[in-house]
Design goal:
Blueprint (H helix, E strand, L loop, with lengths): L6 E10 L2 E11 L4 E5 L6 H8 L6 E9 L2 E2 L5 H7 L1 E4 L6 E5 H13 L5 H14 L10 E2 L5 H15 L3 E5 L7 H17 L4 E5 L3 H6 L4 E6 L2 E6 L1 H10 L6
Parallel strand pairs: 3-10, 3-11, 6-9, 9-10
Antiparallel strand pairs: 1-2, 1-4, 4-5, 7-8, 11-12
Helix pairs in contact: 3-4, 5-6
Length: 248
């Protein structure tokens, strides 16, 4: 299946308890492509993100998720992550008692089977922290404890840089950020893409302002659990003027 896309979602239906949220979602992402996914609150964007990473909270009732041509619909979360899928959370969790550097050491060991020394990992982290404009002292702080919104999101991008996934799902990475923090995070995403040009990205966002910083290859409008229209950046600009009403 050499002609298979990097990532493909086919007619995906998913529910939580008795409520169907994804209602026939389709998407194909090629290597190196950025797909922006936009939609109103309640359209199923965050449900999609967590379902793609195998969250047991959501039951897939039909459809398929394929990664590099292989059906991964039934794979558990840890297997998907080890294979090269990555999710940046809209609301990153605080992990008390676990430093950023130790978290990354465990994550890299699980993802790549690499048991780096703390010194080796610190050198890698410091290089990326510099590129992302992060204070080096954050490496020794507990994960996200006392971090501002922008610091939490930059920490997610740091994880994406070091874990080197092949497909990254960024769930409202711009949520809660002021314009300066947004630009710093967007710069970080561009830095990772420069280092890994084959990285595929699904960028979930509400706002045109992020797309001004990271120009996507494709823009999709999601309403009521499915994509209702796809296009280029002009679609996001239309949305900015007319709102979602025109697509319902």
């Amino acid at each position: 299946m050499s002609d298979a896309p990097l990532f493909e979602i086919e007619d995906l239906h998913a529910r939580v308890e008795d409520t169907e949220i994804l209602k026939g979602f389709d998407l194909r992402v090629g290597a190196g492509e950025v797909h922006a996914l936009m939609g109103p609150n309640g359209s199923g964007k965050s449900t999609l993100a967590t379902t793609l990473m195998g969250s047991p909270e959501y039951e897939i009732t039909s459809g398929a998720i394929r990664f590099k041509g292989e059906n991964i619909t039934a794979w558990p979360t840890d297997v998907r992550a080890k294979a090269g899928l990555f999710l940046a959370f809209q609301y990153p969790q605080t992990v008390e008692g676990v430093s950023v550097i130790n978290f990354m050491r465990q994550s890299l060991s699980a993802r790549k089977g690499i048991d780096l020394s703390v010194l080796e990992l610190r050198l890698s982290i410091m290089e990326w922290m510099d590129r992302l404009g992060m204070d080096p002292s954050f490496a020794d702080r507990y994960l996200n404890e006392g971090f501002s919104g922008g610091e939490k999101k930059r920490n997610e991008i740091l994880q994406m840089a070091l874990l080197e996934p092949e497909l990254a799902i960024l769930d409202e990475t711009d949520s809660g950020l002021d314009i300066d923090a947004l630009r710093v995070v967007a710069h970080g995403i561009r830095e990772v893409r420069e280092s890994r040009p084959a990285l595929g990205i699904v960028l979930i966002t509400h706002y045109q302002r992020l797309l001004d910083e990271i120009e996507p290859d494709h823009v999709h409008i999601m309403i009521d659990g499915r994509i209702v229209q796809s296009g280029g950046t002009e679609l996001a600009k239309t949305l900015e003027v007319d709102g979602y009403g025109a697509f319902k």
